[in-house]
Design a protein that fits this description.
This protein has helices at about 1-15, 75-90, 110-120, 135-145, 200-210, and strands at about 30-35, 45, 50-55, 60-65, 95-105, 125-130, 150-155, 170-175, 180-185, 190-195. With about 210 residues, it is an alpha+beta fold.
Length: about 210
């Protein structure tokens, strides 16, 4: 009897003290981001060398893609899939849905490189980089990466493409957290898709949920 009573007391204490963990519902097909994660406002340059302000994304669902133009495997596949999804939602883009790509290689990806890349994949959404290389601009784009949970590592390599100095080692490859983050109407990061789980149909389904106000 004593043990039964003690067990009831312990359960009651756990419940009233909030010690029983509440499991967040798994809503999306991608990786749910259960914490309310926002990002700081930023201004970068697009493939047309024009300023792009994140304020233009307010009150829309946003597909944020992290890529670089010298990535010839997952980035290419992801860009092709996103172009198809973008085409699928033509009537919503510019109304309540936006796409942007942000480079993780600003040392090589200037506006010209991003413009060429955009033409190759026949995309029309903003592809963003820094206007020019200096400590302030690099700190800005690094902050954007960090706030979206993107890790970028430069690895020296004799087999990588060359650059004309541009303030960094001439031979390097980029390792980074790839994929997309989906934002809801309130600017919160809600879903993450990487190459490990990449599925174009699943991404489109998650976009549909966010457009529905989930």
């Amino acid at each position: 009897m004593y043990r039964q009573w003690l067990g009831c007391v312990m359960i009651g204490l756990l419940m009233t003290s909030g010690c029983l963990a509440v499991v967040e519902p798994d809503i999306f097909e991608g990786e749910d981001i259960n914490r309310l994660m926002e990002f700081s406002p930023f201004t970068l340059h697009d493939q047309h060398a024009a300023n792009f302000s994140s304020s233009s994304l307010n009150d829309t669902v946003v597909v944020v893609h992290f890529m670089f133009t010298n990535c010839y495997d997952v980035c290419s596949t992801q860009t092709q899939d996103l172009a198809a999804i973008h085409e699928q939602y033509t009537e919503r883009v510019g109304v309540d849905l936006e796409f942007i790509s942000i480079t993780v290689d600003p040392w090589r990806d200037d506006a010209v490189a991003l413009s060429d890349y955009s033409q190759v994949f026949n995309t029309s959404w903003p592809m963003l980089t820094v206007p020019f290389l200096n400590d302030e601009n690099l700190s800005l784009i690094e902050r954007v990466w960090t706030e979206f949970g993107v890790q970028v590592t430069l690895i020296e390599s004799e087999e990588s493409t060359t650059i004309q100095g541009r303030g960094h080692t001439v031979y390097y490859n980029v390792e980074h957290t790839d994929g997309v983050v989906l934002l809801d109407f309130n600017g919160f990061q809600r879903v993450r898709w990487t190459s490990d789980t990449w599925n174009a149909t699943g991404i489109a389904n998650d976009i549909e949920l966010l457009l529905g106000g989930v």
